[in-house]
Amino acid sequence: LKKKQEENSRYDMLHKAPNLLSRFLGAPFPNGIRHSSSAPPSVTDQMIQYVNRECKGRHDQAIDVLRSGLGMFPEKQGIDFARLMAMTASIETDRSNWGEALSCSQLATSALTGAHVSADPMTAPTLLNCGSMMLRGFLAQGQDAEAKAAADSTAEALAGLGPPSGATRAASLGLRLASRHAAGDWEPASKLAEQLADASSQQSLSTAQQRGGPPLGLPQSFAALGQWHAAQRGAGPEAEAEAQAAFSQGVQPWHSVSLKGMEDAEARAACFVGQAGLAIRASQWEQAEECLGQALQVAEGISTDTHPRVVPILTQLGYVYSRSARVTFAEGLYRECAKILKLDVSRSTTWSLQPSPLHPNLVAMLAWRFHQLLAVMPNRGNEASSWEQLAQAMWAKTGAYGSEDSLSTTFGGAKHLSGQDHAGAGTVVALQLRRGLSVHFGMGV
Q1: Which of 222, 214, 113 is nearest to 168 (CA)?
Q2: Which end of the chain is more exposed for a tag (fewer CB within 10 A), N or C?
Q3: What would the mean pLDDT of 319-343 be, rounded to a whole number?
Q4: For 254, how many CA atoms within 13 A lie in the half-sphere containing its CB?
C-alpha cells in the first residue's frame, strides 16, 4: 500500500507540474508530460527566460519556479535537469548563499553524463556556468585551494567533450587564471595568461563564431586577463596596455547563450571597473568616474541598486570623489555601502556576515577608505577610529592575502588624502569574483 501511495504521489507531481509551470510561462504544456524523462528543451528555455525576465531581485519566486521544473526529473540526470539546477545555483549565487550554490552546481555537473548529453550543444555552456559559480563561491569565501580544484575539474570536464572551440577554451583558461591569480601563484598564472591571450585572439574567436560556437563566458575571460595584466605593477606601460586591451574587449555587449546573462553581465561590469582602476592609477579622475558610472549601470541592471555587487563600485567611486574634492558625495557613497552590507562600526570586533557577499578584503577596503576620508575632516576623529578598527578586523580575516601586506601598504596611510602619506600599492578589484586581487611588482612575470 505504501509503495502504491508513493507511485501515486510521483504521478501527481509529474502531471500537476505542467499546470504549475503554465501559470508562470503563460502557455499550457502541450499534451502534458512527454513519454521520456526529459522535458522539451523549449520548456526549459522558457522557464529560464521567465526567471531572467520576471524574477529580478525576487530570489524566492525564482527558486519556486525552478523547483517546479526540477520535480519533473526524479532521475536527476540529463541536460534539462542540469540546466535548471545550474540556474538554481545562479540564483543562490546572486544572493550569496554560497553553500547551496556550490551544492546545486555540483548536482548540475553530475547530471551531465552519457553520450547523448555530451553531444548536446548546451552541455559546454552549462559546465562553464557551474565552474564559474563554484570558482566565485570558493574565492569569495577565501577558499583558494578549492577554487583551483574547481577550475581544473571544469577544464577536465570540458576536455572530455572533445576538442573545444577557441571561445570555450578561452573561457576555461579564464577560470584557471583567475584561480591562480587569487591564490598568488604567479608563475603558473603567467603561463595561463599567455595561453588565454592566444585563445582569446580575435582570429580564434571569429573562427569559433563562424562555426556556430557562442562566445561562452568571454567577458569573464577578458576580465581575468585584464586583471592579471593590471596586477603586474613592475612590468611597466606594456602590461597596462595589455590590461586596457583586455578590458576593452570585455566591455563589449557579448550575447551569450549560456544559462543566464548574469555572470557575463557582472564580468562586463568588472571590465569597466578594471578600466576605472587603470584611470585611478594614472590620476585620471574624470575617466575613472565615467567608467565606474558605466559599471554601475550594468551592475544595477542585473538585479537591484542595493545588491552587494555594487559596493566595490561605489567604494571606488567614493575614492574618486574624495580625490577630486567632493568629500560630501564620497561620504554619502561610503555610508550607502555600509547600509547595503549592514555594517555597524560599534560591533567591529564581532561583525560577521554568513554567508558573506564579499571577500573580507573588499569590506576592509571600504572601511579603510572611509577611515581615510574621516581622518582628514575636522572633528571626525572618533568615527574615523571606529572605521579603522573595522578595517583591521576585516583585514585579519583575509588570510594569506592580508598577511603579505598591511592595510596602509595596500591602500595608503591614514593621512593619504591630505598628501601627508603614501598612496599604497593598491589592489585589483575583481568584481566578478567579489574580492580584491594582489598586485605584483616582480619583473618578467
Answers
A1: 214
A2: N
A3: 94
A4: 34
